[in-house]
Amino acid sequence: MDQKIRQGRNSTQEVKLTEHTLFIVKPDAVARKLTGEVIARFERKGFKLLKLKMFTFTQKQAENFYGVHKDKPFFSELTSFITSGPVVAAIIEGNNAIATTRIMIGATKSFEATPGSIRGDFGLGFSDNIIHASDSQESFDHESRVAFE
Q1: Which candidate, 138, 30, 32, 15, places its Cα nearest to that of 90?
Q2: Which domains are seen in the chain, by residue range?
């Protein structure tokens, strides 16, 4: 649902409120039996769960999924970790889903994430930080195709 917001006397701007995003409960959270808690936080926030899938990333999928980081020194750590066990991927829908989800998950480095965020409450490190979430519409488009292929 898009909403028009009046700006001044004769100007309106369309603002997209409802959007989709992806999050992935990483192997560390699945192993620690935190999947239900993570999903419940999004449901309690008011997001609608559209798709849910448990699987284990292949090396090829992981390299495609994290392709934007392929030239970074931590790329092999990312792909190694995400393929180390089962994950749970979810597509959710709601108002400002991408930005709100990013706030809810917290900073990438768990020790920098604020208490109350998912990573702040449960994360243990950089790769083992419980959850991944798309950071833009473009990321969602790419990552959801990889996860739900």
Answers
A1: 30
A2: 17-147 (3.30.70.141)
Q: What is the pTM of this model?
A: 0.87
Strands (E), the chain: 2-7, 11-16, 18-25, 48-55, 87-95, 131-133
Query: Residue with structure tokens 């979430």?
Result: 133
Residues 6+ apart with CB under 8 A from 131: 23, 24, 25, 26, 29, 38, 105, 118, 119
Over the stretch 76-93, which tens digit does the pLDDT of each residue have? 999 999 999 999 999 999
| Cα R_g (the chain), whole angstroms | 16
**Which residues have CB under 8 Å from 64's CB, separation 6+?**
146
89 touches 148 (CB < 8 A): yes
Question: Catalytic residues, which ones?
Answer: 132
Tokens of 86: 């089962």
